[in-house]
Design brief:
With 158 residues, the protein is α/β, with parallel strands linked by helices. The protein has one domain: Response regulator (Rossmann fold), CATH 3.40.50.2300. The chain has helices spanning 13-27, 52-59, 77-80, 89-98, 129-156; strands at residues 2-7, 35-40, 83-86, 106-109. The protein has a four-stranded parallel sheet with strand order 2-1-3-4. Helix 1 packs across helix 5 (129-156) and helix 2 packs across helix 5 (129-156). The two termini are 13 Å apart. Residues 1-149 form the Phosphotyrosine protein phosphatase I domain. One of its GO terms (molecular function) is protein tyrosine phosphatase activity. Its EC number is 3.1.3.48. This is protein-tyrosine-phosphatase.
Amino acid sequence: MRVLFVCLGNICRSPTAEVIFRRLLDERGLAHRVQVDSCGIGNWHVGKAPDPRTSQAAARRGIDLTTLRARQLVADDFGRFDYLLAMDHDNLAAMRALAPAGFDPHLGLFLDFAGLADRAVPDPYYGGERGFEEVLDLVEKGALGLLAEIETRLKARP
């Protein structure tokens, strides 16, 4: 099974989701069964490390983002992943516009799995420190819900 987290530039929200979800998979002994990646809609930050504010907020919670580098969503991603999860409605609209006709895998909002009324992870890039903490809180909730979904699907597979 393969999961792709997508935000605008791949330096704040989606890399945070990638690492948090990977950690949950490790804790549950599922890392060998689920591949996780992240990317951005735009190409502004390709090859760059996550935003320092994102890395600092994550580090305060024991999460290390230092090995990640931003990449852009490419057409092949639609054939490689079972779940393509957008951080907000604009990201999702851009992904739908790029998706090939007849695309079958799950394409939706990441926070659909969190059971929250507002299903968008806000972009903290132009805000203050609190926005980066909020992203971590929301991503942790979404990751737990997604993990429950993935575990159910994996149990159904032989």
